[in-house]
């Protein structure tokens, strides 16, 4: 049995991250900086001597391209990668495509902060973080976790909120503590799990 390795990486900076827009299920690509972040993530994983048996990503371009760029750096371009919208970013509904500053002017600082940072308050027509967790966790439990526990070294490239759902479980965060937890773009979180699926070690590969 090889080690039970699970690496989570938020996609590199996207064009809409740069423009300060609510992105959600919209599909902008990576910026030049985002490409560089994805390549750097792959290089940091390679520097640790890590290789992978499985990959998982979302149905969105920015996560898929982050995965591809990391695998290029790792020399593993033929890695089997599963794509599923269960790993998509949180759906911000009517906020998608809006500038965050414009949204604050329209609805007020307090309301927008509540939509962005509360656990269970939905933006108009969209998902709360609680909804995102309810979408992501079944996929993790059915597809990703069994692979890791079989000893398949697993790389996941996804999004800030879909990965927060996983980190919430792995780091044993609560609905009160998870909203304050930020994930930087292009920074791998390297977990090794125990046989009971709890975390043995965690390493953050910041630049």
From TrEMBL:
Which reactions fall under this protein's catalytic activity?
A: (2R)-2-phosphoglycerate = (2R)-3-phosphoglycerate
Q: Which InterPro entries match?
A: His_Pase_superF_clade-1, His_PPase_superfam, PG/BPGM_mutase_AS, Phosphogly_mut1
Which EC class does it fall in? isomerase
Q: What superkingdom does the record give?
A: Bacteria
EC number(s) reported in the record: 5.4.2.11
Listed Pfam families? His_Phos_1 (PF00300)
Q: Which is an annotated GO molecular function term of this record? A: phosphoglycerate mutase activity
Give the metabolic or biological pathway: Carbohydrate degradation; glycolysis; pyruvate from D-glyceraldehyde 3-phosphate: step 3/5
What keywords tag this UniProt record? Answer: Gluconeogenesis, Glycolysis, Isomerase
Locate the site labelled Transition state stabilizer: 159
Looking up SUPFAM superfamilies in the UniProt record yields: Phosphoglycerate mutase-like
Catalytic residues as annotated in Swiss-Prot or TrEMBL:
11, 89
Residues given in the record as substrate binding sites: 10-17, 23-24, 62, 89-92, 100, 116-117, 160-161
Binding partners and assembly: Homodimer.
Q: Which family does it belong to?
A: Belongs to the phosphoglycerate mutase family. BPG-dependent PGAM subfamily.
Function text = Catalyzes the interconversion of 2-phosphoglycerate and 3-phosphoglycerate.
| Full protein name | 2,3-bisphosphoglycerate-dependent phosphoglycerate mutase
Q: Which organism is it from?
A: Candidatus Rhodoblastus alkanivorans
Species classification: Bacteria, Pseudomonadati, Pseudomonadota, Alphaproteobacteria, Hyphomicrobiales
């Amino acid at each position: 049995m090889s080690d039970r390795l699970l690496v989570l990486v938020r996609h590199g900076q996207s064009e809409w991250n740069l423009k300060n827009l609510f992105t959600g299920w919209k599909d902008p690509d990576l910026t030049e900086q985002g490409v560089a972040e994805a390549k750097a993530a792959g290089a940091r994983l390679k520097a640790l001597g890590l290789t992978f048996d499985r990959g998982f990503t979302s149905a969105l371009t920015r996560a898929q391209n982050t995965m591809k760029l990391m695998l290029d750096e790792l020399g593993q371009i033929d890695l089997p990668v599963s794509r599923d919208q269960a790993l998509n970013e949180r759906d911000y509904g009517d906020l998608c495509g809006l500038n965050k500053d414009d949204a604050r002017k329209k609805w007020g600082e307090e309301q927008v902060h509540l939509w962005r940072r509360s656990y269970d308050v939905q933006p108009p027509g969209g998902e709360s973080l609680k909804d995102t967790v309810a979408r992501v966790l079944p996929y993790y439990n059915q597809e990703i976790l069994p692979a890791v526990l079989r000893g398949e070294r697993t790389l996941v490239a996804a999004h800030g909120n879909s990965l927060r759902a996983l980190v919430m479980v792995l780091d044993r965060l609560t609905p009160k503590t998870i909203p304050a937890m930020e994930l930087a773009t292009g920074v791998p979180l390297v977990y090794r799990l125990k046989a009971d699926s709890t975390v043995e070690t965690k390493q953050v590969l910041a630049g």
